[in-house]
TrEMBL record:
One of its GO terms (molecular function) is sequence-specific DNA binding. The lineage of its organism: Bacteria, Pseudomonadati, Pseudomonadota, Gammaproteobacteria, Oceanospirillales. It comes from Marinomonas communis. Pfam families: HTH_1, LysR_substrate. Gene3D superfamilies: 3.40.190.290, Winged helix-like DNA-binding domain superfamily/Winged helix DNA-binding domain. It comes from the Bacteria. InterPro entries: LysR-type_TF_proteobact-type, LysR_HTH_N, LysR_subst-bd, WH-like_DNA-bd_sf, WH_DNA-bd_sf. Keywords: DNA-binding, Transcription, Transcription regulation. This is LysR family transcriptional regulator. The keyword DNA-binding applies.
Amino acid sequence: MKHWEAMEAFVEVVHQGSFSKAASRLNVSASHISRLITHLEERLNTTLLFRTTRSIRLSEAGEKFYQHCRELPNALASAEEAVSALTQAPMGTLRITCATTFGERYLAPLLNDFLMQNPQVDLDFHLTNREVDLVEEGYDLAIRMGALRDSSLLSRRLCDRAEYLCASREYVDQHGVPHTLAELSKHKCLMGSKTHWVFSQNGQRKEVKVSSHWRSNSGPALLDAIRRGLGIAQLPDYYVKEDLTSGRLISLLPQYQYPYTGVWLVYPRAQQPSPKLKAVCDYLIERFEKEDIFASWSKRL
């Protein structure tokens, strides 16, 4: 057990990047973590971590040891959950990550509802527009948009998603509309966190890079810029649906619109789906299937 505890501490220190953060995650003192790793290094007769007052760095031996140990905590948790999954109620901490605006608007209320029905589940809900490494950073679940690239992850479809190229009526009156993808270069383009826009041309996915005088990783900020007539931009339907219906914004190049992609629940392939993970995935999918979640949020404004 001492050997296992030391390896768990070592992996957590590498994950967190500090002894104090690892100690907080494992509910022990930083001095206890330090002693465990010192004993581990003594047993292995090598240095695993180079320590300074501000940072830690893996030695060559530490890097090799980490590569072999990194999956052990997940493997142990999966083994225990596999045995008890048939009878165990959802419990424990769920670590979930999602894009900021989608998470704030649509996921947070649903997750709060889920917690009210499952009081033995705790939530660590991290909102970021960065694509998180689920295994490396210890997350149970991510909500991701569009085409999925990482085949090492499992996924379940949460809902449909389409992107619209839009402009305000004021912009169109002043600058006209593009009729082809090539004409986008003549327009003022506003960019979000992506480096390109996605279209469909001759039945094939086509990525178009455009020059931009305006860029932000915030969807609401991008929507505001479109509404004010600063240029044209591509945004998901849940941002612009109401503005398109009311006529405040105009859809451009609809003949090139890429078909529905999706919003996905994504989780590590190596992990035995725990009762808490299965329960929250089932709950979110059921809510999105039964309700117009996007419309429900708009009514709360």
